[in-house]
Amino acid sequence: MATSLTKDSVRPDTPGSGKTFFGHPRGLATLFMTEMWERFSYYGMKALLPLYLVAPGGLHMSGTAATAIYSVYLSLVYLLTLPGGWFADRVLGPRRTVAVAGTVIMLGHLTLALPTAGTFFAGLGLVAIGSGLLKANISTMVGHLYDGPQDPRRDGGFTLFYIGINLGAFAAPLVIGTVGENYNWHLGFALAALGMALGLGQFLLGTRHLSSRSDVVPTPLSAAEKTAVLRKSALWAAVAAVFYTIVAFSGVYTLNWVLVPITVAGLVIPVLVIARIKRDKELNGAEQAKMTAYIWFFVAAAAFWMIYDQGGSTVSLFAEKSADNSVLGWEFPVSWYQSVNPVMIMALAPVFAWLWVALARRGKEPSTAVKFALGLLLIGVSFFLFLAPLSIADGGHKAAALWLVAIYFVQTVGELTLSPVGLSVTTKMAPAKYASQMMGVWFLAVTAGDATTGLLSIAGVDLNKTGIVALEAVLAVVAGGAVWLYRRKVKELMGDVH
What we know:
Layout: E1 20-21, E2 24-25, H1 27-54, H2 63-79, H3 81-92, H4 94-112, H5 117-135, H6 138-144, H7 154-182, H8 185-206, H9 223-250, H10 256-278, H11 285-308, H12 314-322, E3 323-324, E4 326-327, E5 330-331, H13 340-361, H14 368-394, E6 399-400, H15 401-429, H16 438-458, H17 466-485, H18 487-493
Parallel strand pairs: 3-6
Antiparallel strand pairs: 1-2, 4-5
Helix pairs in contact: 1-2, 1-7, 1-8, 2-5, 2-10, 2-16, 3-4, 3-5, 4-5, 4-8, 7-8, 7-13, 10-16, 11-14, 11-15, 11-16, 11-17, 11-18, 13-15, 14-15, 14-17
GO molecular function, one term: dipeptide transmembrane transporter activity
Protein name: MFS transporter
Subcellular location: Cell membrane; Membrane
């Protein structure tokens, strides 16, 4: 953790110059707990989601339909981070946007707790909207707590914040998953609502410790712009309402009428956003070259997340049906597998941080392109590993739980190789004009990957089949090989970014 500043070395208007949180501004405790409880609610619901969709006591859908819904939901969450950031920048400011987001998420989980299919999907929509609003802004508020990018506490503060994320993600399946699977699905969703309520309550109580900058609306809409936005929003809402009313009364409505447009948007919007930036004539030659290099990283990340996020759908559904989910004769809920990744992240992240620094001192740290190639290779290896339990299940036997733990372990190592590096290179390669928007562009890689999985599932492709899993594994390894082969060209395009 970074060394704390003394009280006298902090500007008078810097938050947390008095009482601190492990040497950091007091407001970090507020944001740490908010994010921890929000992740508790999010990951708890996410761990239950595919299992509830296929359960006889749930919605009793096919595995293909459950994977489609799960993937489209994740795609929508990350897609909505773009309008979430816009809403804070132009309308409410980060602090009030996060308060609204927490309220919407809590209401969404409460709606999920109601025992009807209609309210369930409405609840999913509310949670996705709230998560998009919150995810885009709470990290920005962490940055506001520090005296600029050069504050030596800044990196340590984000590290603490990241621990909060993973603590919530680790505990959620153990608590919410156990209650949902073993007692009552809807009680599990209600616990997710309780978690968000606790996070929202302490956020509102601790809001006085946050930076005054978090109240600022950076580029507020003018009166004319507000009128135009409201008019366009009302028009599109009316068009959607009329369209879906006609579809419903015609008797041809199915869930795909909602899933397909979201999936297509999840594939088209990322392409349009990157194309718009790439075509911008105001970017100089160096910025254009960096954006060309960034497209390589974006496509690689999309391929990575397409496979990685199946750990919560494809692999989880396999575990529910075909794995021996026990240790020394003691059976545990399937949702507990979703706690493996966060606990491994907390254990391995410091190791990777040390490793990159140690290699850099020796002049041997891999380039960003090589790290991305390694991440793709590892995610491919994880699905090659998946072939073993699939083969065991095809032989009429239950696959051991350790096979699935091994899959999650390899995926976690791949995540640590690619994800933090991707976040870092996104900020470094962002054109000056789009500096505040590029993090949303990075999240669109997750949107594109999950939308691809959703589209395949909607088309009826069973992603739990040996041939499909092998094909995905091969494609990931080939993509990693392509990035590695073109690493020097990509490095050249990156210019002064290392």
